[in-house]
Amino acid sequence: MRISLRKVRAITGMKFHTLLSNISVMLGPILAIGIAFAMRNLMPDLDVSKAGMSFSTNAFVLSFGIIFNIAIAGISMTSGPLAEEKEKNTLRVLMTSSVNGLEYLIGTLLPPLLILVIVNMIMIPVSGVSFGEVQFGSYFVMTTVASIISLIIGYIVGILTNNQMQASIYTTPITLLLTSVPAIKLFKEDLSEILDYTYTGVLTNFANSLFSESGYQWNLTDISVLFGWLLISLIIFIYAYKKNGLDS
Length: 248
Known about the structure:
Elements: H1 5-21, H2 23-42, H3 57-87, H4 90-95, H5 101-126, H6 136-160, H7 164-179, H8 181-187, H9 192-195, H10 199-209, H11 220-244
Helix pairs in contact: 1-5, 2-3, 2-5, 3-5, 3-6, 3-7, 3-10, 5-6, 6-7, 6-10, 6-11
């Protein structure tokens, strides 16, 4: 399948305009920043070195903020628009033109990915963490891979649903589960090890380790979890795409 960069650029530009003008979709990243800012100012300023507690307000706010952005905003940025285009038959018109499926997917993936990455960077100072405290390379790689996973999950939901209502119903339990990971790991230690095998659990562990003496250390478990989720989501997406297509 050949890819036309001209068509990809045209779709990317169109998708940027569509996303930025879609208030319901852009509400996710805006809420992520707003909630993180509110939490940072309302929660007591605790650190791992105080009262023998293994907790840091800044780390908790950062993990919650990036997970809210990546999980809720990321999934909705691809599931909602894809379901809307199917519902309004605009996707069918596009697919019957000279644009192929791969060109459409690349062109529609880049804009939300860039928005997620930018918000992930903004989340660092918003959560009260300085850029010097963050292992920036690890942070960028980890949050970007997690963002791609969420966007692919959103595509899967969009492919399997026929309208925005169905997409919303499908995504609600998924996003609730993924975004509740930081709180569950904090209050339910018996579930912590299980949640370590979710990609949002890896993000939570990374944020919590920022204020430890040794900082975050890449390990085989986190790498396997991240790329395992990426691989599995890609396999499910390819299966759903081959079985249903984008506009069925």
